[in-house]
Amino acid sequence: MTAPVFLADPALLAEAADAVDATARGDGATVLLEGPEGRHAVSVRRLRTGEEVVLTDGAGTGAYGTVSAVSGKDRLEVAVTSVSREPEPRPRITVVQALPKGDRGELAVETVTETGADAIVPWAASRCVTQWRGERGAKSLAKWRSTAREAGKQSRRLRFPDVAELAGTAEVARLLADAELGVVLHEEASLALATAELPREGGIVVVVGPEGGVSPEELTAFTRAGARTCRLGPSVLRTSTAGTAATALLLGRTGRWN
């Protein structure tokens, strides 16, 4: 089993990288993990001295080492032997996710993150039953971000997806206009995403509509921005799973899963 991943202070990881670079064998680089991450490592994962771990800032840096000391229920030290920096992936894949009902939003964020999407944009589509307003909206966004962070660690990612602020249709249209390829998933589209021409660089933005579908007005706005309508396959997926299926297909076709 691969070593577990924990989120660490970027400043501490930078210091560890400098220490590794300054020594021939990488000796003397120690990172302290405490607080919620340390508690999870010690009390939940029950890590002990000598076990391998990976520390990351969630932005592409990975520090590899072993647990050198454990103290209390929420504190351990990691002896770091190497530090790497993962390049930004190309092409970058952004999933625009219309707000689903209930906890399906967290499910969508979790599986899209585990699959490998680079950014997630919550979208207040006109046919969304769920609405994010005021304190409820702030809590929901925080939950999406927490879900992406935990899913990033679970899937051993060094680079966690950005979860943007809630977007309206006009903002989504601007994202599509700026993308190398903008796609709106639609069951009646004649073009299959599996055969669409894909860019090698830049960004791909995939829009996933709500349970009630993308409205004609929204579809017009998105196609005017340069987006193409594409279908995934012969079956109709739920809004909480369509983004994951599209991300997997794109990662395979662009070579990022090679």
Automatic annotation (TrEMBL):
<keyword id="KW-0808">Transferase</keyword>
<dbReference type="InterPro" id="IPR046887">
    <property type="entry name" value="RsmE_PUA-like"/>
</dbReference>
<comment type="similarity">
    <text>Belongs to the RNA methyltransferase RsmE family.</text>
</comment>
<dbReference type="InterPro" id="IPR029028">
    <property type="entry name" value="Alpha/beta_knot_MTases"/>
</dbReference>
<keyword id="KW-0963">Cytoplasm</keyword>
<protein>
    <recommendedName>
        <fullName>Ribosomal RNA small subunit methyltransferase E</fullName>
        <ecNumber>2.1.1.193</ecNumber>
    </recommendedName>
</protein>
<dbReference type="GO" id="GO:0005737">
    <property type="term" value="C:cytoplasm"/>
</dbReference>
<dbReference type="GO" id="GO:0070042">
    <property type="term" value="F:rRNA (uridine-N3-)-methyltransferase activity"/>
</dbReference>
<dbReference type="InterPro" id="IPR029026">
    <property type="entry name" value="tRNA_m1G_MTases_N"/>
</dbReference>
<feature type="domain" description="Ribosomal RNA small subunit methyltransferase E PUA-like">
    <location>
        <begin position="33"/>
        <end position="79"/>
    </location>
</feature>
<keyword id="KW-0698">rRNA processing</keyword>
<dbReference type="InterPro" id="IPR006700">
    <property type="entry name" value="RsmE"/>
</dbReference>
<dbReference type="InterPro" id="IPR046886">
    <property type="entry name" value="RsmE_MTase_dom"/>
</dbReference>
<keyword id="KW-0489">Methyltransferase</keyword>
<dbReference type="Pfam" id="PF04452">
    <property type="entry name" value="Methyltrans_RNA"/>
</dbReference>
<dbReference type="Pfam" id="PF20260">
    <property type="entry name" value="PUA_4"/>
</dbReference>
<dbReference type="InterPro" id="IPR015947">
    <property type="entry name" value="PUA-like_sf"/>
</dbReference>
<dbReference type="GO" id="GO:0070475">
    <property type="term" value="P:rRNA base methylation"/>
</dbReference>
<keyword id="KW-0949">S-adenosyl-L-methionine</keyword>
<comment type="function">
    <text>Specifically methylates the N3 position of the uracil ring of uridine 1498 (m3U1498) in 16S rRNA. Acts on the fully assembled 30S ribosomal subunit.</text>
</comment>
<feature type="domain" description="Ribosomal RNA small subunit methyltransferase E methyltransferase">
    <location>
        <begin position="89"/>
        <end position="250"/>
    </location>
</feature>
